[in-house]
């Protein structure tokens, strides 16, 4: 039996302003349909996957324009996830009494439930290879560690716990061999889907991700990481600890100048970097097929042929810029202007 486990982005994080010039009422989910995509099979599989989707809640409260913006594990579940998300219903968001379209995100874990055994933990085979690869990294035997990681991925990585543990292990190896592109991918995956990890590893993931987000000037995610440390029940993270970290990140953020980032786009695969400055410009060698500003209190479509500058106001909530290209390419995103987080 396969079960879809979901985590919805329904509220704003502490990084956003709590007082607005406009009267804004967020969209509220009213119908989850959690059981509609539960499937049973006589051929039980341990293969699972996790997907982060971004979507628009239109003026009537219906979900549309679903895009998968991050995925780990089996990609075969993506269509199922999109079908599920399309069945969500919302009470419409309102701005000054008028219904408006807004953006939401949702994490869906496609997990297989078995009668005869548990599939919610790492297998013995996975754990043995994981421990050996970790030891080889500690011993600075990076080539041997890479071989062990490849074996771990091909032979033992099946369920969501194993998938995210593998992302964390890959991030460690990438860090020590200074493969920053790979490190960026895997620490981001481990951070996004950290709920599948044991608390102590979650803590390590979050701390590593926090430093990386700061170095990349990804300040929205940096604030998310601070927030995440306070959500691990078994970890002591006091308000004083939180305030100290916030002060450090605030100082870096407020004194930051223009932000220049590069993103590798696969063909028709959406990316959605988060915005932390008031003006955004895109540079690309090839045409883009889609550019859309997705905020928790507004959605703006842009003509990819005439787009010049994207402007974000201080009242816009948690904005990401969804970008797609028909052809694989690397794009440059430049953020400048006012700091508003």
Automatic annotation (TrEMBL):
Domain of life: Bacteria
Signal peptide start-end: 1-21
Key words of the record: Coiled coil, Signal
Family matches, as Gene3D superfamilies: 3.30.1150.10
Coiled-coil residue windows: 135-162
Record protein name field: Energy transducer TonB
């Amino acid at each position: 039996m396969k079960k879809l486990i979901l985590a919805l982005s329904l509220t704003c994080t502490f990084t956003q302003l709590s007082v607005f010039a406009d009267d804004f009422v967020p969209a509220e989910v009213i119908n989850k349909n959690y059981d509609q995509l539960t499937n049973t099979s006589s051929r039980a599989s341990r293969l699972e996957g996790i997907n982060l989707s971004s979507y628009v809640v239109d003026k009537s409260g219906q979900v549309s324009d679903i895009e998968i913006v991050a995925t780990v594990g089996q990609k075969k579940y993506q269509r199922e996830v999109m079908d599920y998300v399309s069945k969500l219903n919302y009470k419409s968001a309102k701005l000054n009494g008028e219904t408006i379209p807004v953006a939401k995100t949702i994490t869906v874990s496609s997990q297989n439930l078995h009668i005869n055994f548990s599939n919610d933990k790492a297998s013995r085979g996975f754990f043995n290879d994981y421990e050996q690869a970790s030891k080889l990294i500690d011993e600075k035997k990076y080539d041997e560690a890479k071989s062990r990681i490849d074996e771990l991925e091909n032979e033992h990585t099946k369920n969501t716990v194993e998938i995210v543990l593998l992302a964390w292990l890959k991030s460690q190896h990438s860090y020590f061999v200074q493969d920053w592109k790979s490190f960026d991918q895997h620490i981001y995956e481990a951070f996004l889907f950290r709920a599948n990890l044991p608390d102590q590893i979650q803590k390590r993931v979050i701390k590593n991700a926090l430093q990386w987000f700061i170095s990349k000037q990804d300040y929205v995610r940096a604030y998310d990481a601070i927030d995440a440390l306070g959500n691990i029940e078994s970890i002591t993270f006091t308000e004083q600890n939180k305030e100290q970290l916030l002060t450090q990140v605030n100082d870096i953020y407020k004194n930051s100048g223009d932000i220049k980032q590069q993103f590798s786009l696969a063909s028709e695969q959406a990316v959605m970097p988060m915005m932390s400055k008031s003006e955004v410009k895109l540079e690309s060698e090839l045409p883009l097929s889609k550019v859309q500003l997705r905020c928790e209190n507004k959605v703006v479509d842009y003509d990819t042929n005439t787009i010049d500058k994207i402007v974000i106001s201080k009242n816009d909530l948690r904005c990401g810029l969804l970008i797609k290209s028909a052809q694989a390419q690397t794009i440059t995103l430049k953020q400048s202007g006012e700091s508003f987080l």
